Amino acid sequence: MSETEIVVRYAETDQMKIVHHSVYAIWFEAARTDYMEKAGYPYARIEEEGLMLPLSKLECKFLSGARYGDTVVIKTFMKKITPVRLEIHYKAYRKKDSALLAEGITVHAWTDSSLKIINLKKKSPALYSLLEKEAGADT
Amino acid sequence: MSETEIVVRYAETDQMKIVHHSVYAIWFEAARTDYMEKAGYPYARIEEEGLMLPLSKLECKFLSGARYGDTVVIKTFMKKITPVRLEIHYKAYRKKDSALLAEGITVHAWTDSSLKIINLKKKSPALYSLLEKEAGADT
Amino acid sequence: MSETEIVVRYAETDQMKIVHHSVYAIWFEAARTDYMEKAGYPYARIEEEGLMLPLSKLECKFLSGARYGDTVVIKTFMKKITPVRLEIHYKAYRKKDSALLAEGITVHAWTDSSLKIINLKKKSPALYSLLEKEAGADT
Amino acid sequence: MSETEIVVRYAETDQMKIVHHSVYAIWFEAARTDYMEKAGYPYARIEEEGLMLPLSKLECKFLSGARYGDTVVIKTFMKKITPVRLEIHYKAYRKKDSALLAEGITVHAWTDSSLKIINLKKKSPALYSLLEKEAGADT
Question: Does the distance separating the beta carbons of A58 and B115 come in below 8 Å?
């Protein structure tokens, strides 16, 4: 599990005066970038190895609106890792009162740089075993 | 059901050379705006009546990446309407070969302008019955 | 000169209830994509030839706010072409009353796919002479 | 002057594998939010007083592309304040090698919540004199 703080940007609000729902997917991505950075395997390095991690699925429940002026804390949990798939869970909280704003799940496929599915366990055993360990700790 | 054409914008791509997954939520929104426009009840008018329609849930499966140069067709289906809730389904296709790119669901709450839940059937019976009719036709 | 219609997206508004200023750069890009499409040389083809056109400069004056519900018309003018540089001008109008919303300029460098400056006249004489003709007509 | 660190988000890249130029306007905005926060007058408070600060002009020169994996440092300079206008300058650097990525200017109008121009010196003398002091120090 890792925690990532995000300061709401003005551009992220919409005319409902809350953060637009599409932004949570971007925050979740920033949070998993931060997770991998802290786990010692930056996502930029994963791409340098010729691996990509496109989404196959996104789910998000919105419970309360984040507002400009808020700092948001994203808790990121590595949930399931298989040789072809990765599942990550997220909880977004408003920092000042710990209110739960949103909960999300992303499911990813492991691919090469031309977006063809690959077997991560064979292609990058070190990354695979790191994620296995993380998933074991977070679940 | 309505169909909405969207031309991929360069800014919507990411360094995987496909459209970033967060963009589909924005396209779905543009598609439901277009749906309501065609149904004769523009979403801008809904907000003028003091009603808002924030998301409570988003689900999206990504099957193939949209690319710069593609035109995307979104088919939008009004699925379920209750006095407090609206569910809409979407299918995004690549226009040139009809490949299915993504399938999504948005669930919305009906609220007033301060984001408090309201009963749509009481607050705007005309809109409620229009949506009921649409949902009947689309399901 | 080409004209491109853009329907304001809800996600493009911010809590001032107008379209966020950063969006105009995205609209200008969509408008020049459309320009090149209509000129018979789609920008996607330019990239397939190994050419890229990153911005070196952006200027925009904002005169009136676009709102959700508006359709915006972008007029795009090819202004100056040299072997290493392209300058394009834009005027954004609100469709319903022709109010001028914004005026912009983008200046681009011609590069190869690794972002190194190239000489367009040598690399792609056909594209160069097309743009020269367009710039002659638009200025 | 204030310094704001920004971690590049994957969603901010485009298929040129650099950060899309429209993102700099969003970063500049995040940087001026941070500036005002540090100056003890958060922008969210300015809006609570019924004041808004829409852009009337944006200029940006792009010198080198930011990439995913980069941390960017924005230096923000309060440049000119008049009762009806505010001008802010920005320099964006890549943190790891201090390379200058972009330089920008935003010019803002002071308005009330319905976007009508107001005289800041009369409407909020405390904010006006704070900005005058900051502009004196930054110029």
Answer: no
Q: Do B26 and C9 touch (CB under 8 A)?
A: yes
Percent of chain C past pLDDT 70, that is, above it, reads: 100
D139 pLDDT exceeds 90?
Answer: no
Give per-residue burial for D60-99: e unless 16+ CB within 10 Å, then b: bbbebbbbbbbebbbbbbbbebeeeebbbbbbbbbeeeee
CB contact under 8 A, C61 and D57: yes
Which of A 80-139 lie inside 8 A of C, CB atoms?
Answer: none
Q: Which residue of C has its CA nearest to B31?
A: C9
ipTM: 0.96
Give the structural domain span for C8: 2-138
Nearest by CB to B11, from C11, C29, C47: name it: C29
Q: How does residue C44 score in pLDDT terms, banded at 50, 70 and 90?
A: confident
Output the CA–CA distances (angstroms, integers) from residue A24 to A34, A60, C124, in the order listed. Answer: 15, 8, 42
- In the block, tokens 């090469």 appear at A112
Cβ contact C133:C109 at 8 Å? no
Q: What local confidence, expressed as pLDDT, does residue B31 receive?
A: 98
pTM: 0.97
Against chain A, the chains showing at least 3 CB pairs within 8 Å are B, C, D
- Are B127 and B40 in contact, with CB atoms under 8 Å apart? no
Domain count for chain C: 1
**Dist. CA A35–CA B139, nearest whole Å:** 41
**% chain A with pLDDT above 70:** 100
pLDDT score recorded for residue C139 = 74
Beta-bridge partner residues of D90: D76, D104
Residue D30 maps to which CATH number?
A: 3.10.129.10
pLDDT score, position A36: 96
